[in-house]
Specification:
- The protein is of the alpha+beta class.
- It has twelve helices and 16 strands.
- The strands form five sheets. Strands 3-2-1-16-15-14-13 form a seven-stranded antiparallel beta sheet, with helices on both faces. The protein has a three-stranded antiparallel beta sheet with strand order 4-8-5. Strands 6-7 form a two-stranded antiparallel ribbon.
- Strand 1 and strand 2 form a beta hairpin.
- Helix 1 packs antiparallel against helix 2 and helix 3 packs across helix 8.
- The chain is globular and about 55 Å long.
- The two termini are 20 Å apart.
- 50% of the residues are buried.
């Protein structure tokens, strides 16, 4: 039961009974997500699907495993796949100073001689921090935004400290645009989403109208906060300009990599996420499509940072190992609480959290299995790990 319906249930029970037991039961019902979808898979395909609740509570539209949802930070993992495709094509270099492609000098003012690279940006070791609103308006300049001192960690040089930073991914998107001359959302279509036959997109400009009409609405405390399209397409498929304008012809390669929300704006179904997971299980190949070489996948699934107690911010044990936009679960180290499955098994993938949504894509490479899930209007009740109780239920 979603929060909006839960509040109605609370009022009804109170009016009819006034009983404390029934009120408590109604409050418990209200603490359920508005929608929840779980897709299990192996290398060959989807093995199980479960869906409950509503993609659109007001319209009473039931959610399905094929409805596109803003999966938040799982978007970063899909960006990393595109990066590795361009690395294979020798269009970009993981260890080159990104300033060369950006066309302007990107430096932490406290460490002006330390270059920032794609490898550092993808692994959240660039010394960038989320000190500004990284959801920049359409006409904004990324260069000007990153000139703010509060976007940099003055205490740690690039490469020395892990701090999760969404703002690094607009930088990555700008680098990719400058390297190819292509708009980021179209580049993601060409490199990843199109070859895998996924009707998915970063923000909404590249998705079909049919996909936009099936969007999963995101709720926080029962209030729609994102993608409430009312059965149609969004009025503006990207973050509008400050004056509310939505003229995408003002796009210039690399000027504002935040336009298409590379850090969290991927709209994709849970079934589509399962295809991404199967791609990793297949070492770069899925459903007859070779997207990455096994060597590139091996680079993706290699930890670049492991918490030692002093070399990063684990956010309460949520992050303990990280690679190229890949999270590693079940780290056996003090302070680590990164095992929503509760079985101690090593898994890789990524979690997402934004606008009341929680999501996850996790694969067990040893067993050749995985799970993709999301839930909307998720209560913040914690489970036994650093994840919410809802995420733990969906993981297991």
């Amino acid at each position: 039961m979603g929060a909006a319906r839960g509040r109605s249930a609370r009022a009804l029970v109170h009016r009819r009974c006034g009983g404390q037991v029934l009120i408590a039961l109604a409050l418990l019902a209200a603490a359920q997500p508005a929608a929840a979808v779980r897709v299990a898979f192996d290398r060959r395909g989807v093995t199980a699907v479960a869906a409950s609740g509503f993609a659109d509570v007001a319209a009473r539209r039931a959610v399905t495993a094929d409805d596109p949802v803003r999966v938040a930070s799982i978007s970063k993992l899909v960006v990393a796949i595109a990066v590795m495709r361009l690395v294979e094509q020798r269009r970009i270099d993981l260890d080159a100073d990104v300033s060369v492609l950006l066309g302007w000098r990107l430096r932490n003012p406290a460490f002006p001689d330390a270059p920032v690279t794609l490898r550092l940006l993808l692994s959240h070791r660039s010394s960038l921090v989320d000190g500004i609103d990284y959801v920049l308006p359409l006409e904004a300049s990324l260069r000007e935004a990153l000139a703010e001192p509060k976007v940099w960690d003055a205490g740690h040089a690039p490469g020395t400290y892990f701090r999760y930073a969404n703002v690094g991914f607009p930088v990555i998107a700008s680098v990719l645009e400058r390297a190819t001359g292509e708009r980021f959302d179209r580049l993601m279509q060409r490199l990843v989403l199109g070859p895998l036959k996924l009707d998915a997109c970063y923000n909404w400009a590249a998705c079909s109208e049919a996909a936009a009409a099936r969007a999963v609405v995101l709720y926080r405390d029962g209030v729609a906060v994102r993608d409430d399209h009312r059965g149609g397409a969004p009025l503006c498929p990207v973050q509008p300009a400050r004056d509310g304008g939505c003229d995408l012809t003002m796009w210039r390669a690399g000027a504002n990599g935040a336009i298409f929300s590379p850090q969290g704006g991927l709209r994709i179904s849970a079934r589509g996420l399962a295809t991404i997971g199967r791609l990793l299980l297949g070492r770069g190949r899925v459903d007859g499509v070779r997207l990455l070489t096994p060597r590139s996948v091996a680079e993706l699934v290699r930890p670049l940072w492991t918490l030692d107690g002093a070399n990063g911010d684990s956010e309460g044990g949520f992050y303990c190992r990280y690679g190229l936009a890949v999270t590693f679960l079940a780290t056996n180290a003090p302070g680590c609480r990164d095992d929503p499955f509760g079985d101690g098994r090593a898994r890789i993938g990524h979690a997402g959290e934004a606008y009341g949504l929680r999501s996850g894509l996790w694969i067990d490479r040893a067993r050749g299995t995985g799970v993709a899930y999301f839930a909307t209007d998720v209560p913040d009740a914690r489970g036994h790990s650093a994840f919410t109780a809802t995420e733990e239920r969906l993981a297991r």
